Every structure is written in structure tokens, then in C-alpha cells.
Amino acid sequence: MNAAALVAAGQPLVVSSFPEWRTAARDLLMHDIAPELVTWNEAGTHAVDLFSGAPAADPSADNVPAGPAPAPPAPAQSPRIPRAFMDMLQSAACCRVPDRWAFLYRVIWRWQHGEHDVQSPADVDGVKLAAMVKAVRREEHDMHAYIRFRERPVDAGPPRFAAWFEPRHDVLPQVAEHFVKRMGGVTWMIGTPEASVMWDGATLHHTGPLMSSAADLDDAGEALWLTYYRSIFNPARVNAQLMQSHIPSRFWKNLPEGAIVPAMVSNAELGARSTGQAQAVGRKSGFTIPIAPADAQPERQQPSKLDECRRCDLWQHATQAVGGEGPAKAQIMLVGEQPGDQEDLAGKAFIGPAGQLLDRVFASAGLERREIYLTNAVKHFKWEPRGKRRLHKTPAQKEVEACSYWLDKELASVKPRVIVALGATALKAVLGNGNAKLGESIGKAIRHEDRWVVTVYHPSYILRVPDEATKRQAFNVMVEGFKLAQQLLERPPQEPSASSTGPA
Asked: Is 311 helix (H, G, I), strand (E, B) or coil?
């Protein structure tokens, strides 16, 4: 039974989501049913009925036939609501107020009847609508900022990370979409008192509540984080009121440091503020140790997985590290500069516009992508904002050198006989020479250590240049370079030259 028929029969409308409300509201507007004639109930709740305890009326009493329920008015033309206004209503629908469905229908009914000032701050309903939208957007921002993922034990299986949050409004679906874009293929779950979402790396699953509190989560790494937090806490500069204004108290209970902050603030007020340092730090007279700063650096354990790499700062602004892919023992290895925007989001090398042009080069050179190992000199996407876009920014030499750790591991594992370097950055990384010039080696074969190196243009160069003749020339250089790489495979192995590099 549709919404208009239910209203005509005196039945309340029970909805649990914005799509259900939108379907019912469209039917009511088509039948021009006024808001005061409709009773809206939230799914899982029941409206208070003053006559719920009274017995039902008997249609046969006094021999009066019950008769059919009155029919709703004839439907009119389907309503046309602006997309921006409907998006505003959808956002407001996430606000947990007792009468949200009835209020939203009153707003949309007024709009349909020509009262377009219903969304104005000067209108009484417009004020409430704007406040609901603002509250929802604020809750989305707070959930982005204060949700804390905990890493689960490896033997527990997926998801790898889990988090608990107690939102004031129904913002979990849109917040989940935000983390889908930011966390790539890493599996995770967010639990709330009302519902949960789980990302398996490919699909987002919505379920009922799976956790009861943050106590259901256990992260062995939190002990290290709390130790670090205590060490950077400065009691001489603590401002409890400022801390509460920056992070509302309702978020502290679900943050790991929330368990130790009250004691540290209390100790500061009891006298630790006067010393300005932790008790473990004593005032000791010292002396200068005659040793070079480089020798004083501790021996650091190298990362075992690319996702754990912190050798430079690029990981802080990238979605994920993008490793190489291809045959484990490929004879030809292609080395580019760095992953692009699409590669950063998907976690795969050369899938964007440059990768599509590269496929055309392979086809013209008689190669197939699956025969080549594809990787980049730098594994994280370096970019700068330009409006809402992320534009490529060339890596610095220190970032190329930091990432040479991973390129060397790939070379040692794959053992290619020929390397094709795309552009200047890749050439410098492969040769280990920051002064290598692209113009001196383009299209040529160079003997480096125990393998050949062929340098060609990067596909992005062809995509950038406006001149068609230059595009064709650069494309042909790439095709000939890959043909040369195949010819070099047929040459017998040579001993590395004394200078380690030189033209063939």
C-alpha cells in the first residue's frame, strides 16, 4: 500500500531512512496531502496513542456497516525538486531530532507550493533546517578528526583495523565513504552503538551493531603511543580548559590518551608545573662527547614492508605506497618516476593516462605488459593542491635516494637483464647518479654494472606537450627504445666496465 493510501486509511507512515522517506514524500506530494494530515513514525519506535488501551470499535455495532476506507485524492504530476535543495534535505535527514521526517515533509510541501523562502535563514523552518545541516556536517568533521583505528592481531583475521565511535547523528554511511577513499585496499571496520560498516578492500558492508564500546578493541601498539605521549607532555604549559575546547570531552573517553590525561593534568596542578619536566628527567650536569654527529646516530632497523616505510616524509600525504608488479624474474624492468593520482588511490602502478599511453607503446614495440616488471623510483605520490585537484610534483633528490632502498631490493629480486628508465628521475635513480643528464642518454643503451639501461621519455611528457609533431617524435623514441631493449636481450653477457657506465 502506498503512502497516500496509508494516510487515507488513517495509518501512520513508518520510515527508517532517507530513501524510504523520499519515496513516501513523493507519493504524498503527488496526491497533494497536507503535512498536518500525515503521522510519521521512526522505524523501531511507536507513536504515543491516547486510545491504545481502548477496545477496537466493532463495525457491526448498531448494524452500521463499516464501509471502505476513503480513497486518497487523484495523483498529480510528479514533483520537481532542485538537486541542491534535495541534497540539503538528505543531509538534514541525518540529524537525530524527534520530528525530523514530519519536519522535512513540511519543508518540502511548502517548497512545492511556492514558498521557496522555506530555506532562508529568515524563515522559522529555514532556521531549523540550516541548524540541522550544520549539526550533521559538524558531526562528520568530528568523526573524521577523532575516530581512532586500532590494529587487530594478525591471527584474528580481517579486518586489519577497527574503530569505535559514538556519533550524535546518522553520519556513518558518508563517513565510511570518506575512509574508503583514504585507506585504499586496507581492510577496516567502524562500529557505533546503532550500526557498523566493514570494508573488505573492495566492497563496503553495512551491518547492525557488532561492538558495544571501545573496550572491545585491543592494540598492542598503544602502549608505545602512550609512552611517547607521556614523554612529550609538558606540565608547565598545560591548559586544561584549552584542551577541552579543542577536543570535546565526549571524545576523550574513546581516545587511548584519554585514560592518562586526567592524571597528568592533576599532577601538573599539584606541582609538576613548577618543574616543567617529567619526574624521570633529572637536572644533570653534562659534558661534550667528541664524536661526529653522523657517528652518533643509532643503528635503525630497516622496514620490512613497503607500507611501513618512513624513510622520507612523502608517506604522510599519500594514500598508500605503490610497489612494483610483474613477473618475479622478468628480463625487462621498467622504472618510472613515481605513482600518479589514480595509482595512489588504487595502489597499482601505471593504470592512469600515462599507463594507457604506455600500453600503446608496448603494442607498437611488439611487447605485452605482462612480460615486463613495472615499478617506480619513488613509491609514494608527491603532489601539491590546485583547487580540488592533486597535481604531480617532481620528487627531490633526497626522496629518490631514500627510496633507492626499495628499488635495490627489487633489482636484487627480479634480476632483470635490461632496465628501461622513463625520464630523468628514473635514470638518476637507476644509475645512482644525481648528475645524470636525460638529453645525453635518451634512446641509447648504457652498460651499468651487470645490466643494460635504456632511457626513453616518460609517457606524461607526451601527454603534456601541445605540439603534435613533438608528441609523435617522443612516442617513436619510446617505441624504438623498447625495441632496443628486446634486442639487448639477445646480446651475450658482458663484464661491467671499469667506469660502471658508458654508451653501448
From this structure: coil
